[in-house]
Amino acid sequence: MFKDNKRASATDTLIGQGTHFEGKLICEANLRIEGEHSGDIECAGDVIIGETGMARSTITARDITIAGKVYGEVTAKGRLTITAAGQLTGSISAQAIIVQDGGMLNGTCHMEMANDIRTRPLSETGSGSTSTTNTKEQTREKEKARQAV
Questions:
Q1: How many angstroms separate the first and last alpha carbons of the chain?
Q2: What is the rounded (10 degree) CA torsion for 25, 26, 30, 31?
Q3: Whether this model's pTM surpasses 0.90
Q4: Pick from 15, 28, 23, 20: nearest CA to 40
Q5: CA nearest to 114, candidates 60, 69, 65, 62
Q6: For 77-96, b where at least 16 C-beta lie within 10 A, e where not — what string?
Q7: Distance between CA 15 and CA 13 in Å, rounded?
Q8: Which of 8, 38, 41, 149 is the most buried (most CB within 10 A)?
Q9: Helix or strand (DSSP H, E) at 144
Q10: If you compute the radius of gyration of the chain from its CA atoms, what whole number of angstroms results?
């Protein structure tokens, strides 16, 4: 009769505007900060620092969106987005980084490749007896890519 709804909502944990939180925060769900936080954040879900939010933190999460201010080290296992109102001062490690026009990034950046990206086999690198065939295939693929743009 009743179904067990395990779908996570857009924001599962909220630190609201006017709230000051200090200490280590570990959460399995998504987190949104509209107030202020000082300390480490370890999140299995996504972290959003809202426009009124400020974090003096080391943040580790799946995807991170910064619309407020962050001071510290940020590690995104997926995508880091700094919106037009966002400011980040510190170091970044992420697979993908988006900085919208007006967003500020002051610090160091380290990009990592996704684990699921496969490298091409040695036979496709142009060595061996199939190099002529692979070169023709690569030329066709490049031509298709140009036409798509």
A1: 52
A2: 0
A3: no
A4: 23
A5: 62
A6: beebbbbebbbbebebbbbe
A7: 7
A8: 41
A9: helix 131-148
A10: 21
Q: What is the pLDDT of residues 46-84, one digit of tens each?
A: 999 999 999 999 999 999 999 999 999 999 999 999 999
- Cα→Cα distances 56→3, 6, 85, 123, Å: 40, 32, 17, 49
Q: Is the dihedral of CA 142, 143, 146, 148 positive or negative?
A: negative
Long-range contacts from 26-34, C-beta under 8 angstroms, 24+ separation: 31/61, 33/68, 34/68
Given this model, what pLDDT does residue 20 score?
95
- Res 116: pLDDT: 56
Per DSSP, the residues of 3-68 read: ----PPPS-SEEE-TT-EEES-EEESS-EEESSEEES-EEESS-EEE-TT-EEES-EEESSEEESS
The helix (run of H) or strand (run of E) holding residue 138 is helix 131-148
| 33-52 confidence digits (pLDDT tens) | 999 999 999 999 999 999 99
Give me the residues paired with residue 97 across strands: 80
* Residue whose entry in the numeric block shows the structure tokens 């996504």: 46
Measured CA to CA in angstroms, residue 43 lies from 40, 133, 135 at distances of 10, 48, 45
